[in-house]
């Protein structure tokens, strides 16, 4: 951030009076520009016992498999965001059944909210950011080609909890993946 | 938003190619400025069966009672944010026990994440944004002077679930409070 989005004045990074953290503060009009973590909302969409996964057509992690998920928008709820992303990425209409996992990713200031869901009619197709979408039995999940640790964790818990017959909400904090860590010095 | 925070160019509100929603796009450098919902994280801090509430020293809802909560910062997890806000607003150190409620407030683009917690040592005091802090038995909660619907809902569920002896995560979407709605035409 270089300039104030309100008045185009220069901003500088400093701790405003009464605050604890450095913020971008406008030197002209005094506006404090806060930055906040972002929510990624997605689904574990089920159809006849199988789970719908998408192969990513975009970076990061192009070519790898993920659950449909994306940034929550202003004016919607997290479950609406999860259903919207499922339609955008996998062209699938779902009923959202309930919150299932909350993962913090503090190194990239994201919070993942993943919801259990069921396809309404079994229809799906690759959306614009997806190379292909497909339904997987637990035994067919491409575990070595899952795009993100949050998705791997969510899927592993999901199948275990489904066998157990009970889905409690699971939460956790996940650090950088190997491909996100800086190389050793 | 009037100007680009990157180059100080004028921004205009339009739908970028491949997008679905209007965004602030810089007419000079093309940067798309996304806006996202914000997370409010807080605690239901318990000590010897009583719950710690704070009377707000700031607007909105100055003078009314709330659970300690505030905006999550970049680089922290939601449970860390909940504990930090509890210390800032009520000078109380807590152990966070688990996620308890998730409430969507789409009309103001916020997601509330409230955690069960217990005071480590029973010590508390009013923080800078708090007029007074106090511990309340269920029968003493000032129900008519609770600041926010999210806090009221969280507290009502909390006491019911505590009697029941089981705390499942509760989620929901809450619309504008009466004092947030525009006056009837
Ligand atoms: Zn300014
Ligand atoms: Zn620009």
From TrEMBL, chains A, B:
Domain Nudix hydrolase positions: 36-182
Name of this protein: ADP-ribose pyrophosphatase YjhB (NUDIX family)
A GO molecular-function descriptor: catalytic activity
Organism (species): Plasticicumulans lactativorans
Membrane spanning residue stretches: none
One Pfam entry name: Zn_ribbon_Nudix
